[in-house]
Amino acid sequence: MQNKLVLTEVFTNALPVLEVLEQAGFEAYFVGGSVRDAMLGKDVNDVDIATSAFPNEIQDLFKKTIDVGIEHGTVMVLWEKETYEITTFRTESTYQDFRRPDSVTFVRSLAEDLKRRDFTINALAMDKDGYITDLFDGMDDLNQQVIRAVGIPDERFGEDALRMMRATRFSAQLGFDIEEETVLALKKNTALLEHIAIERIQVEFIKMCLGQFKQKGLAYFIESNLYEFCPGLKKEALRKFSAILPSLDNERQVWTSYLLLDEYDTNRLNAFMKSWKLSNKLIQQVMSLFRSVKFRMESSADVLYIYHLGKELALETENILSYLQYPADSEAVLSIYESLPIYSKQDLAVKGKDLLELTSAKAGKWLGDALNHIEEAVVLGKLNNSKQEIITWAKQHTLIPETDKH
Ligand code: ATP
Ligand code: MG
């Protein structure tokens, strides 16, 4: 692999930022994932910049900055409608409790900064001309497709246990092997994961499960016993999960499939998801998907079911059913969906206010009930979605309180 790269557009767009820093007498480089991915010929969406300038010096140099974590040395700079995270070279001096250090020490040396990075492939720096600084043979490891800790793996995982999750996630994203010593250190230090906030573990876990080489990363995750220090995961279920993993392509499918394979019942779902601190929105989605798969294991897909679930979840349900080797029928679901007369209450030809006009009664529970009945009748094709027909039908079914108004 060459030690010079032709800069692509994302990098050239950011060059003026590097130049501002350099003209003020500081060093500045592209670093981290963007350099790694560019070397691998992958698409790079955003670039990270590291510099010898201290945060207050960065703020002085640029007109528009956002303080995103000054105490960790990161300043966000707005430049030509793009935002760039600029991080001061730093060492991580005090590690307490095997997690991110409480304090960081800013330094002026690139070498010091690269030394504190997790893996050799993530410890490359690239200057404005595309020349690579590679102090830990990261280019060789990229060539050989290896994830290797910078320095002594055992020490590095002891400093920050999240790095173990990151090793498996990079393996899952890149399809690389984890180097032998690094694997040994991983196996030895798994218990340290207990010190890491679950939110941070979750991010890496999901990236692993959605990586292009997910089964590879997951194999390390299982073999090293890292899973034992993640809430509620079991080896047997993970093995089965691994077999269907390639078919899953979003977070809610990942969680739903795992929970189904681990034979969770609906009552315990919530506790599991809370222990992973999933967002409420995601919890709701997983609940729906889990319930719909359970429902479909025993019943066929009917019109009301598809209407309430919506197209996306209904199709995801069919997919999960088929991975779990239950009979599924995406085509039937799609054709039912496409022939639905309405897709939500908003599509009804009658609104609450139209019903209120027919009576002197005040809005109340009756109104919601009436709209629900109308909605169901329309969805089931028992009633046409026309204002006049709905009103006649509602009167016939005494859904509107009798008054002397008409
Ligand atoms: P991604 O493509 O997922 O963003 P990335 O390599 O850029 O991958 P980030 O989490 O964005 O990963 O981190 C940026 C860089 O910061 C890494 O490449 C690595 O050099 C360094 N880094 C991040 N987290 C750690 C850590 N826990 N320990 C040491 N270095 C880290
Ligand atoms: Mg990144």
Small-molecule binders here are: adenosine-5'-triphosphate, magnesium ion
Shape: elongated
How large is the count of helical segments? Answer: 20
Largest sheet properties: 7 strands, mixed
- CATH fold title of the largest domain: Beta Polymerase, domain 2
Number of domains: 4
Report the average pLDDT across residues.
Answer: 94
Which architecture of the largest domain per CATH? 2-Layer Sandwich
Structural class: alpha+beta
- Proportion of strand residues: 5-15%
CATH superfamily of the largest domain: Beta Polymerase, domain 2
Helix content: 40-55%
Radius of gyration, in angstroms, nearest whole number? 28 Å
Uncertain stretches of 5 or more adjacent residues: none
Query: How many beta-strand segments?
Result: 11
